[in-house]
Amino acid sequence: MDRKNLWAPWRIGYIQGLDKPNECFICHNLKDRKNDKKNFVLWRTENSIVMLNRYPYNNGHLLIAPNRHIAGFDKADEEELLELVKLIRESQKALTLAIKPQGFNIGLNFGRCAGAGLPGHMHIHVVPRWEGDTSFISSCSDTKIISQSLKELLEQLQQTSKKNKLPNL
Ligand SMILES: [Zn+2]
Fold it and tell me: Of 3, 82, 157, 160, which has the most beta carbons under 10 Å away?
């Protein structure tokens, strides 16, 4: 059987940045309010932030994170937990309206060995899927093409959010 690897060359910047000490891009984006557009921040809610993943596995890959730099669910309070789950729902709504995915992978990685690039600050991945796209984690055979620029996608999601009053927590 052929071994197939995920081919995601745009992720190299992310991989190379992993060893930078003391740098949490989520906390950075939370503080850097004036650069929401540049940082691809889609929503800020009371306890959380939603942003586009700069190094997406697929078009429309969103990250949902609590405002607090906490590693896992065990450190989150009830309010944060509820908001994170509601934001999954709202993210799916916005993506469905904007780019019409046929499915979603939604998940979390805890610990480097499980693939967490940023183990200190938990974040939920929301990855839209279409029939025939490349696989989320396991494999793909062709060069993956992310056809829409992040800037364009952010604008589209912002317009959709405004029009549909999202997030509606
Ligand atoms: Zn953080």
Answer: 157
126: nearest Cα among 104, 109, 147: 104
> Average pLDDT over the chain, rounded to whole?
86
Peptide bond into 119 cis (omega under 30): no
User: How many CB atoms within 10 Å of residue 44?
Assistant: 16
Q: How does pLDDT run across 85-132, given as a tens digit for each residue?
A: 999 999 999 999 999 999 999 999 999 898 888 889 999 999 999 988
Instruction: Tell me, in angstroms, the distance from the centre of ligand 1 to residue 22's CA.
Output: 9
Q: Are 111 and 119 in contact (CB under 8 A)?
A: yes
Q: Which of 103, 110, 113, 111 is nearest to 136 (CA)?
A: 103
Query: 118: CA distance to ligand 1 center in Å?
Result: 8
Are the CB atoms for 36 and 51 separated by under 8 Å? no
Residue with tokens 């990250």: 63
49 CA from centroid of ligand 1 (Å):
11
